[in-house]
Amino acid sequence: MHKSITGIIPVMLTPFDERDRVDYGSLERLIEWYLAHGSDALFAVCQSSEMQRLSLAERLELARFVQRQVAGRVPVIASGHVADAADEQGEELAAMADTGVAAVVLVTNRLDPQQQGGDTLRRRLDALLQRLPAELPLGLYECPAPYRRLLTDEELRHCAQSGRFVVLKDVSCDLATVRRRVQLTEGTPLAIVNANAAIAFEAIQAGSLGFSGVFTNFHPDLYAWLYRHWQAQPQLAQELAVFLALAAMAEPLGYPVLAKLWQQRLGNFATAASRVIDFDVRERFWALDALLDKIETGTEDFRRRIAIP
Q1: Residue among 175, 173, 294, 302 nearest 240 (CA)
Q2: Global pTM value
Q3: What is the mean pLDDT of residues 94-102?
Q4: Can you name the residues that pair with 107 across neighbouring β-strands?
Q5: Residues 6+ apart with CB under 8 A from 196
Q6: Is 42 strand, coil or helix?
Q7: What's the pLDDT score for residue 117?
Q8: Which of 64, 93, 245, 307 is the most exposed place for a label (fewest CB within 10 A)?
Q9: How far apart (Å, rounded) are the C-alpha atoms in residues 217 and 246?
């Protein structure tokens, strides 16, 4: 039986230089920052990585680079599952499997790209399972782009009972759904990991085995403390959960550039360049830097508070 991928799983950013090339120096600093701030695994080549705007060669090299830099300290999982055509999907996933990542993550909307329903998803899924090595751990990701395709209970149960899936990045953003999914997958290798900050605390209490939302690019250590210590200090955990939920409300303000500006503040990124954001976020979202100042103040305040025995 495969080991589950659990805990705090940052959705990794892809840094670019001024010439629109992947900046591997910045990526190395980012990886070390994730690991120094409580990450239990890394999700490379995902939507936050701008995977839809990366070539297959770039996606594969990103996964290989992250693997080499991490050097076994935590599991690295990766997707890069972006194609429409079934044959092309099989090729890109098989190539990702060859990078040696701990799990290859299938995107649910790619299993039903034309929104045709459960029969299409089941056929595509079963065909891919036939193509991928039986011993390869797999994940599932309800990626919101190009559309959010949530798994039905029946689909989730089928995946869980296959024994091949180790993690679902849950994007239901609904606590009742998280609770039900935790129950549906009980006794299987499939871990439910919530991705929504607004319900992060309650989802952990309900049995979500970690967190994998976009604000792991700002303060993964705060989510790590919440996940590991909420039972010992429930009042502080509740206060922290409120801050984390409110801070994550900034996501619509130009993410992933928003997170890249944060990483520039930390000295990890040389630029905030992005292939998915083609506008000046500071011009469109007034007082953006002032908001980041407030998030920084709150982050440091809670870091001081959780350090108190």
Answers
A1: 302
A2: 0.97
A3: 96
A4: 141
A5: 170, 171, 172, 173, 203, 213
A6: strand
A7: 87
A8: 307
A9: 15
